[in-house]
Amino acid sequence: MDYRLDGTESLGIEFGSTRIKAVLIDKDFNPIASGSYTWENKFENGIWTYAMDEVWQGLQAAYKNLNADCGNKFGAKITKLASLGFSAMMHGYLPLDKDGNQLCEFRTWRNTITGESAKALTELFGFNIPQRWSVAHLYQAILNGEKHTKDIDFLTTLAGYVHYKLSGQKVVGVGEASGMFPIDSTVNDYNSEMAEKFNALPKVKELGIDIVQILPKVLVAGENAGVLTKEGARLIDPSGNLEHGVPMAPPEGDAGTGMTATNSIAVKTGNVSAGTSIFSMVVLENQLSKVYEEIDMVTTPVGKPVAMVHCNNCCTDLDYWVNVFGQFASAIGAQMSKPELYDALYESALYGEPNAGGLVNINYFSGEPVSHTDDGRPLFVRTQNANFNLANFMRSQIYSTMATLKIGMEILEKENVTIDCLMGHGGLFKTPLVGQKLMAGAMNCPVAVMKTAGEGGAWGMAVLAKYVVDGDEPLDEYLNNKVFANSECKTVAPDENDVNGFNEYMKLYKSALKAEVVAYENI
Fold it and tell me: Do you know which Gene3D superfamilies this protein is assigned to (predicted)?
């Protein structure tokens, strides 16, 4: 590649659920190098978590791999950057004391242990507070009498924590902030009335907690969120090659970077991210008529209201099945790479019956608030006369990844929320056409996938980082006029047979959820 690193590049790093990915972009927003590190959450003492040591181990490994890619392509390592930004899996709970020490394990979005507090706060605010939100975790810890709550000086998310350690700044992007505590979009800050109500709760008042004081400062996209410190540069690059003083973007969650990466921050645009979890984001023209437990009200990176349907389970169960087929392929001496295996199995789903032949798969590894299930047990069910073949099996697996999302999206349909097109990104869309076609049928809406969709949130974060140093227009115009002006995009319209078939599948799926409850209550 005829390119020389010259310090005009911007870097985005995203701590995803299964991978930490670093993407370097040039001045024209092209991804020119990348590096990654694979990690996995652990279920310890009833909590889904990650070890903080692995945060830094993974960051350094991803950055080292990025530099190796630069070395192979350009014959040089990174020394200077124009800008830098970090994002991570959304929300969760990461409390620190006044000395910056972590007070308990990092509690991820995947946990469904805050039902009591989420319900109480939803009623108190008249605003839906999902179980994964930071304030739900905080209030649940208080209700549980957890001793660490008296020592909380700073409550942040994984993205906010990494940013704080690298810059010294206690800040977070408004999109991520909107999953910590409700945001008032008229001022792009925490809702002051709700903050007062929270602070007045007896157990909160007893601890002397002022929720706004312990949360990070809210910034919108384009605002300077500090610079990379000398210590921070060494945390990323222990070799010492990376220079400090790099301007940093407000840290965001993977929802905000997903919206950016798919150019879905304008009114009536939407995107669906499908990986370990699956969620849709629809930028609203009008507010919803009432509070829905299944719909999260969050914001774009510039503070516009967004209706979000977030489901904890997407591709994990599907990946396990693909691994089983991979083991079979190895057992018979068939040499297939992982991408070839995925493509072959996904493509077989296109030949399945539109309703998956009477096969039903429930992909729950954890609970799903959208379908009101408290825990998860992966479950595959079929009747005796179901048409059990590979094509139908794989179609039922892929349908399973989007079935819970459909339950939430049905609410938006009843609210007459208009979506011109859903932009798809994430692992489900890596195999050309398959996930896109089946998603279009499932949501009964055109689904588009951009060429850059494979770069995902890390690329979106790199774009937000670049916006800090050269953004001279509103973000939606910046994305339209500069970032996506010449982007390649393929759109698939819903097929009527797929629409009708998925609706039939959903009837069986919803009935089978009763069996799911029995499974996790007894197994």
Answer: 3.30.420.40
Q: Which of 119, 126, 128 is nearest to 293 (CA)?
A: 128
Query: Whole-angstrom Cα distance, residue 497 to residue 385?
Result: 22
Alpha helices in 144-263 (DSSP H): 158-167, 174-177, 192-199, 202-207, 211-214, 230-236, 254-261
Let me know: does 47 contact 94? Beta carbons within 8 Å. Answer: no
What structural domains and CATH numbers belong to the chain? 10-254 (3.30.420.40), 263-313+409-492 (3.30.420.40), 315-367+379-400+496-521 (no CATH)
Nearest to 63 by CA among 238, 225, 227, 261: 238
For residues 301 and 175, is the Cβ–Cβ distance under 8 A? yes
- What are φ and ψ of residue 416, in 5° steps? 60, 35
| Residue in 278, 85, 297 with CA at minimum distance from that of residue 173 | 85
